[in-house]
């Protein structure tokens, strides 16, 4: 009897965890990829991967808006919500949010930062990338 109860318990635990794995696999299978081609071809690009619910990400939002307006026709500033697009964190190999990834105009990743990043640091990197491109 004890052996039967033990086997039932083990089987229940197995079903519990395999069900979660199947649900995660189903979520990943139905997850939508981010619709834009990134980095933007021929353009200096900054991608910020975060979430609307994370505190440092919320602190970054007004900075990203300001930087996006400043560099409107010269650089692409893109925010990707990792909860809305769950395939993107693995694609970009991020370990924490927010993560900022900077690309030069050839599409080469040149810098990556994890966590809150002040506006002046972002501006410094974008200005350098644009100067190297000849677009500043």
From TrEMBL:
Record keywords, A-Z: Signal
GO biological process: cell redox homeostasis
Domain Thioredoxin: 15-131
Cellular compartments per GO CC: cytosol
Gene3D superfamilies linked: Glutaredoxin (3.40.30.10)
Superkingdom of the organism of origin: Bacteria
Pfam families according to UniProt: Thioredoxin
Stored SUPFAM superfamilies: Thioredoxin-like
GO molecular function, a single term: protein-disulfide reductase activity
Signal sequence, renumbered to the chain: 1-23
Keyword match rRNA-binding: no
Stated name of the protein: Thiol reductase thioredoxin
Species this protein is from: Desulfoplanes formicivorans
């Amino acid at each position: 009897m004890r052996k039967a109860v033990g086997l039932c318990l083990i089987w229940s635990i197995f079903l519990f965890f395999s069900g979660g794995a199947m649900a995660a696999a189903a979520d990943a299978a139905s997850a939508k990829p981010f619709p834009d081609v990134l980095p933007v071809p021929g353009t200096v690009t900054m991608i910020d991967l975060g979430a609307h619910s994370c505190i440092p990400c919320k602190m970054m939002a007004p900075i990203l808006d300001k930087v996006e307006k400043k560099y409107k026709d010269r650089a692409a500033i893109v925010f990707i919500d990792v909860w809305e697009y769950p395939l993107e964190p693995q694609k970009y190999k991020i370990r924490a949010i927010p993560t900022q990834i900077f690309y030069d105009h050839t599409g080469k990743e040149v810098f990556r930062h994890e966590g809150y990043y002040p506006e002046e640091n972002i501006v410094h990197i974008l200005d350098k990338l644009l100067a190297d491109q000849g677009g500043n």
